[in-house]
Amino acid sequence: VQLVESGGGTVQPGGSLTLSCVASGFDFNLVYMSWLRQAPGKGMEWVSSILDDSTKMWYADSVKGRFTISRDNAKSTMYLQMNNLKSEDTARYYCATSREGDNRGQGTQVTVST
């Protein structure tokens, strides 16, 4: 199992970013996937999950209405569209094969700052 996140960066409050997660080594189109994040000095926080067939998505209250999770099974890729970013969204973001962070990659850093 390999998961590689990308798309992070530094943005101003109110800005947007789209993260990508490219999967390999398993049947991506059969697996429930998740995004998690870890802010400096804090524990891992679940952000969002999506069913294998994209028929259902879930979001943490802290990101609901601002973040959108999606996936393209043909490309073995999952996305996280993040809008109206806030300073409290600053964290390292990981994709994983479970809400608990199984098989997560090395992550991609998102910094929201003026």
Topology:
Blueprint: E1 2-6, E2 9-11, E3 17-24, E4 33-38, E5 44-50, E6 57-59, E7 67-72, E8 77-82, E9 91-96, E10 108-112
Parallel strand pairs: 2-10
Antiparallel strand pairs: 1-3, 3-8, 4-5, 4-9, 5-6, 7-8, 9-10
What would you note in describing this structure?
- This protein has no helices and 10 strands.
- It has strands spanning 2-6, 9-11, 17-24, 33-38, 44-50, 57-59, 67-72, 77-82, 91-96, 108-112.
- β4 and β5 (44-50) form a beta hairpin.
- The mean pLDDT is 97.
- It is mostly beta strands.
- Helix content is 0%, strand content 48%.
- The strands form 2 sheets. Strands 2-10-9-4-5-6 form a 6-stranded mixed beta sheet, with no helix packed on it.
